[in-house]
Design brief:
mainly alpha, Farnesyl Diphosphate Synthase, 1% strand, globular
Length: 291
């Protein structure tokens, strides 16, 4: 796990430094503080790590890759800010800290999320990222991954499931999570290849399996995890009577499925040889984490 932990630490440091620079120039209104709270309040930086590692595999200058890495972290933060709102998951704790609408108010949370979303596209469109074609490709694919074909679509399916007459099937949950969780993870893994204008297929295959394994691990944590370590309320889905990978497959079945997906993810990286070991370790980390 050493390759991943070292790469993750480098990614966290680089992303933190870049966000410090970005937020220093934004302003001092409550919405700016709320944005910073959402982005800088810890987190694994897995998506940013995937961008930077994919870029490294394709010999892309880290100075070009850091902006898309921050972009996906900003967009992920926006999704969490809105997901925590009373009209959605109604959570008051995120990573052990008050959620944005609790620390400020709902209006500030909505606006902070909106601003983080637009910031993501601003960062991807920055001339420092690369040619116009590269920047346009990143923006277009990020819009698809985050919008009505991706994350927002998955969230809409999730909300609809709360009032559905019958629980979702395994196929339906897989489709839901491919959008809600998987789409942004897939964009993150592909971004390095897109920066190099290279074939995204190996990283796309890797990320599709990784994203589903990540969500299955989340469902397992929701059932068996420690709230103090997770930094959020657990067992919400069970309380709401929602179907999950655990409720459909059982704990052992869910763990087996997650492990199989990690194997698939690792196998997809064979074109990169030993150079992709940190990404293989990231896949193993995803199903062994405690938060």
């Amino acid at each position: 796990m050493q390759h991943f932990l070292e790469g993750q630490a480098r990614a966290k440091s680089a992303i933190q430094s870049e966000f410090d620079r970005i937020f220093a120039g934004l302003g001092t209104e409550p919405v700016h503080h709320a944005m910073a709270h959402a982005v800088l309040n810890g987190g694994k930086r897995l998506r940013g790590f995937l961008v930077l590692e994919g870029a490294r595999l394709h010999d892309v200058d880290p100075a070009r890759a850091i902006l898309p890495a921050c972009a996906i972290e900003a967009l992920h933060a926006y999704s969490l800010v809105h997901d925590d709102l009373p009209c959605m998951d109604d959570d008051d704790l995120r990573r052990g800290q008050p959620t944005v609408h609790i620390k400020w108010d709902e209006a500030t949370a909505v606006l902070a999320g909106d601003a983080l979303q637009t910031l993501a596209f601003e960062l991807c469109a920055d001339p420092a990222v690369g040619s116009g074609d590269v920047r346009a490709d990143l923006c277009l694919t990020l819009a698809r991954a985050s919008g009505a074909q991706g994350m927002v679509y998955g969230q809409a399916l999730d909300i609809a499931a709360e009032t559905a007459e019958t629980p979702l099937t395994l196929e339906q949950i897989t489709k839901l999570q491919d959008g809600k969780t998987g789409a942004l993870i897939q964009w993150s893994a592909e971004a390095g290849a897109r920066l190099a204008q290279a074939d995204v297929t190996p990283l796309s295959t890797y990320a599709k399996a990784l994203g589903l394994a990540f969500q299955i691990a989340d469902d397992i944590l929701d059932e068996t995890g420690d709230e103090a370590k997770a930094g959020k309320r657990l067992q919400k889905d069970a309380e709401a009577g929602k179907a999950t990978f655990v409720s459909l497959l059982g704990l052992d079945g869910a763990r087996t499925r997650a492990a199989d997906l990690v194997t698939q993810a690792c196998d997809a990286l064979s074109p990169y040889g030993n150079g992709a070991e940190s990404l293989r370790e990231a896949a193993r980390f995803v199903i062994s984490r405690e938060s």
